[in-house]
Amino acid sequence: MNKSMKIILVIAGILIILAIPIGGYNSLVSLEQNVNSSSSNIDTQLQRRNDLIPNLVSTVKGYATQEKTIFTDIANARSKLAGATNVSDKANADTALSGSLSRLLAIVENYPDLKSNQNFRDLSIQLEGTENRIAVARQDYNTSVNNYNTKRRRFPSNIIASLFGFQEKALYKASEGAKDVPSVDFTK
Protein backbone atom coordinates (compact mmCIF):
# COMPACT_ATOMS: atom_id res chain seq x y z
CA MET A 1 0.00 0.00 0.00
CA ASN A 2 1.40 3.36 -0.94
CA LYS A 3 1.75 6.39 1.30
CA SER A 4 -1.20 8.35 -0.17
CA MET A 5 -3.51 5.36 0.33
CA LYS A 6 -2.48 5.14 4.00
CA ILE A 7 -3.16 8.84 4.46
CA ILE A 8 -6.61 8.43 2.91
CA LEU A 9 -7.40 5.49 5.22
CA VAL A 10 -6.22 7.42 8.28
CA ILE A 11 -8.36 10.43 7.31
CA ALA A 12 -11.35 8.16 6.64
CA GLY A 13 -10.85 6.51 10.04
CA ILE A 14 -10.71 9.88 11.79
CA LEU A 15 -13.87 11.03 10.00
CA ILE A 16 -15.71 7.85 11.02
CA ILE A 17 -14.59 8.29 14.63
CA LEU A 18 -15.76 11.93 14.57
CA ALA A 19 -19.09 11.04 12.94
CA ILE A 20 -20.18 8.92 15.93
CA PRO A 21 -20.16 11.76 18.49
CA ILE A 22 -21.60 14.25 16.02
CA GLY A 23 -24.48 11.89 15.17
CA GLY A 24 -25.04 11.16 18.87
CA TYR A 25 -25.04 14.85 19.75
CA ASN A 26 -27.48 15.70 16.96
CA SER A 27 -29.74 12.84 18.00
CA LEU A 28 -29.81 14.09 21.61
CA VAL A 29 -30.57 17.62 20.41
CA SER A 30 -33.51 16.34 18.33
CA LEU A 31 -34.89 14.27 21.20
CA GLU A 32 -34.53 17.18 23.62
CA GLN A 33 -36.44 19.42 21.19
CA ASN A 34 -39.22 16.80 21.06
CA VAL A 35 -39.44 16.96 24.86
CA ASN A 36 -39.62 20.77 24.77
CA SER A 37 -42.29 20.69 22.07
CA SER A 38 -44.32 18.11 23.97
CA SER A 39 -44.07 20.21 27.12
CA SER A 40 -45.35 23.23 25.20
CA ASN A 41 -48.28 21.17 23.91
CA ILE A 42 -49.27 20.37 27.50
CA ASP A 43 -49.05 24.07 28.37
CA THR A 44 -51.22 24.95 25.38
CA GLN A 45 -53.93 22.48 26.37
CA LEU A 46 -53.80 23.52 30.04
CA GLN A 47 -54.19 27.14 28.93
CA ARG A 48 -57.15 26.17 26.74
CA ARG A 49 -58.81 24.58 29.78
CA ASN A 50 -57.96 27.61 31.92
CA ASP A 51 -59.61 29.84 29.33
CA LEU A 52 -62.80 27.74 29.33
CA ILE A 53 -63.16 27.57 33.11
CA PRO A 54 -64.28 31.17 33.79
CA ASN A 55 -67.15 30.77 31.32
CA LEU A 56 -68.15 27.46 32.87
CA VAL A 57 -67.94 28.87 36.40
CA SER A 58 -69.99 31.94 35.42
CA THR A 59 -72.69 29.74 33.96
CA VAL A 60 -72.84 27.54 37.06
CA LYS A 61 -72.72 30.53 39.45
CA GLY A 62 -76.01 31.76 38.08
CA TYR A 63 -77.68 28.54 39.22
CA ALA A 64 -75.64 27.46 42.23
CA THR A 65 -74.92 30.62 44.17
CA GLN A 66 -74.60 28.76 47.51
CA GLU A 67 -71.65 26.67 46.24
CA LYS A 68 -69.07 29.40 46.87
CA THR A 69 -66.25 27.14 48.14
CA ILE A 70 -65.96 25.28 44.85
CA PHE A 71 -65.58 28.55 42.96
CA THR A 72 -62.81 29.63 45.35
CA ASP A 73 -61.08 26.26 44.98
CA ILE A 74 -61.18 26.56 41.19
CA ALA A 75 -59.79 30.10 41.26
CA ASN A 76 -56.97 29.04 43.60
CA ALA A 77 -56.11 26.00 41.47
CA ARG A 78 -56.03 28.13 38.32
CA SER A 79 -53.67 30.57 40.02
CA LYS A 80 -51.34 27.73 41.06
CA LEU A 81 -51.31 26.39 37.51
CA ALA A 82 -50.53 29.82 36.09
CA GLY A 83 -47.60 30.17 38.50
CA ALA A 84 -46.18 26.66 37.96
CA THR A 85 -42.59 26.76 36.75
CA ASN A 86 -41.67 23.10 36.35
CA VAL A 87 -43.28 19.81 35.35
CA SER A 88 -43.88 18.70 38.94
CA ASP A 89 -45.58 21.98 39.91
CA LYS A 90 -47.71 21.84 36.76
CA ALA A 91 -48.76 18.26 37.53
CA ASN A 92 -49.72 19.14 41.11
CA ALA A 93 -51.66 22.24 40.07
CA ASP A 94 -53.29 20.31 37.22
CA THR A 95 -54.43 17.62 39.67
CA ALA A 96 -55.90 20.23 42.03
CA LEU A 97 -57.72 21.92 39.17
CA SER A 98 -59.03 18.62 37.82
CA GLY A 99 -60.34 17.72 41.28
CA SER A 100 -62.10 21.08 41.62
CA LEU A 101 -63.65 20.71 38.18
CA SER A 102 -64.85 17.21 39.03
CA ARG A 103 -66.54 18.58 42.15
CA LEU A 104 -68.08 21.40 40.11
CA LEU A 105 -69.48 18.97 37.56
CA ALA A 106 -70.83 16.76 40.35
CA ILE A 107 -72.62 19.76 41.87
CA VAL A 108 -74.29 20.36 38.52
CA GLU A 109 -76.20 17.11 39.01
CA ASN A 110 -78.31 18.93 41.64
CA TYR A 111 -79.39 21.55 39.09
CA PRO A 112 -81.41 20.00 36.25
CA ASP A 113 -82.13 23.42 34.71
CA LEU A 114 -78.41 24.07 34.48
CA LYS A 115 -77.75 20.72 32.82
CA SER A 116 -80.26 21.62 30.12
CA ASN A 117 -78.78 25.10 29.57
CA GLN A 118 -77.27 25.17 26.05
CA ASN A 119 -74.35 27.36 27.08
CA PHE A 120 -73.44 24.96 29.90
CA ARG A 121 -73.74 21.93 27.62
CA ASP A 122 -71.50 23.56 24.99
CA LEU A 123 -68.91 24.48 27.60
CA SER A 124 -69.03 20.98 29.09
CA ILE A 125 -68.42 19.41 25.68
CA GLN A 126 -65.49 21.78 25.04
CA LEU A 127 -64.07 21.01 28.47
CA GLU A 128 -64.38 17.26 27.91
CA GLY A 129 -62.57 17.56 24.57
CA THR A 130 -59.87 19.66 26.21
CA GLU A 131 -59.42 17.09 28.99
CA ASN A 132 -58.89 14.45 26.30
CA ARG A 133 -56.33 16.68 24.55
CA ILE A 134 -54.51 17.20 27.85
CA ALA A 135 -54.36 13.44 28.44
CA VAL A 136 -52.92 12.87 24.96
CA ALA A 137 -50.42 15.73 25.41
CA ARG A 138 -49.26 14.20 28.72
CA GLN A 139 -48.78 10.82 27.08
CA ASP A 140 -46.86 12.37 24.18
CA TYR A 141 -44.67 14.29 26.61
CA ASN A 142 -43.86 11.20 28.65
CA THR A 143 -43.06 9.25 25.49
CA SER A 144 -40.70 12.03 24.37
CA VAL A 145 -39.06 12.16 27.80
CA ASN A 146 -38.67 8.38 27.86
CA ASN A 147 -37.03 8.37 24.41
CA TYR A 148 -34.70 11.22 25.36
CA ASN A 149 -33.73 9.79 28.77
CA THR A 150 -33.12 6.33 27.27
CA LYS A 151 -30.89 7.79 24.54
CA ARG A 152 -28.86 9.90 26.98
CA ARG A 153 -28.23 6.89 29.23
CA ARG A 154 -27.13 4.49 26.47
CA PHE A 155 -23.53 4.07 25.42
CA PRO A 156 -21.92 5.99 23.68
CA SER A 157 -24.58 8.72 23.96
CA ASN A 158 -24.09 8.84 27.73
CA ILE A 159 -20.55 10.12 27.18
CA ILE A 160 -21.75 12.79 24.76
CA ALA A 161 -24.61 13.72 27.10
CA SER A 162 -22.26 14.23 30.03
CA LEU A 163 -19.76 16.19 27.90
CA PHE A 164 -22.41 18.59 26.59
CA GLY A 165 -24.60 18.82 29.71
CA PHE A 166 -27.73 17.01 28.54
CA GLN A 167 -29.71 16.58 31.77
CA GLU A 168 -32.34 13.97 32.53
CA LYS A 169 -35.90 15.21 32.04
CA ALA A 170 -38.73 14.61 34.52
CA LEU A 171 -41.80 12.61 33.56
CA TYR A 172 -45.21 14.20 33.94
CA LYS A 173 -46.66 12.48 36.99
CA ALA A 174 -49.92 13.10 38.73
CA SER A 175 -49.60 14.32 42.30
CA GLU A 176 -50.23 11.98 45.22
CA GLY A 177 -53.80 13.26 45.64
CA ALA A 178 -54.76 12.45 42.06
CA LYS A 179 -55.96 8.99 43.04
CA ASP A 180 -58.42 10.40 45.60
CA VAL A 181 -61.99 10.85 44.53
CA PRO A 182 -63.10 14.46 45.06
CA SER A 183 -65.58 14.88 47.90
CA VAL A 184 -68.88 16.56 47.13
CA ASP A 185 -71.26 17.64 49.89
CA PHE A 186 -74.77 18.50 48.72
CA THR A 187 -76.05 19.25 52.24
CA LYS A 188 -74.71 22.82 52.36
Automatic annotation (TrEMBL):
<protein>
    <recommendedName>
        <fullName>LemA family protein</fullName>
    </recommendedName>
</protein>
<comment type="similarity">
    <text>Belongs to the LemA family.</text>
</comment>
<keyword id="KW-0472">Membrane</keyword>
<keyword id="KW-1133">Transmembrane helix</keyword>
<dbReference type="InterPro" id="IPR007156">
    <property type="entry name" value="MamQ_LemA"/>
</dbReference>
<dbReference type="InterPro" id="IPR023353">
    <property type="entry name" value="LemA-like_dom_sf"/>
</dbReference>
<dbReference type="Pfam" id="PF04011">
    <property type="entry name" value="LemA"/>
</dbReference>
<keyword id="KW-0812">Transmembrane</keyword>
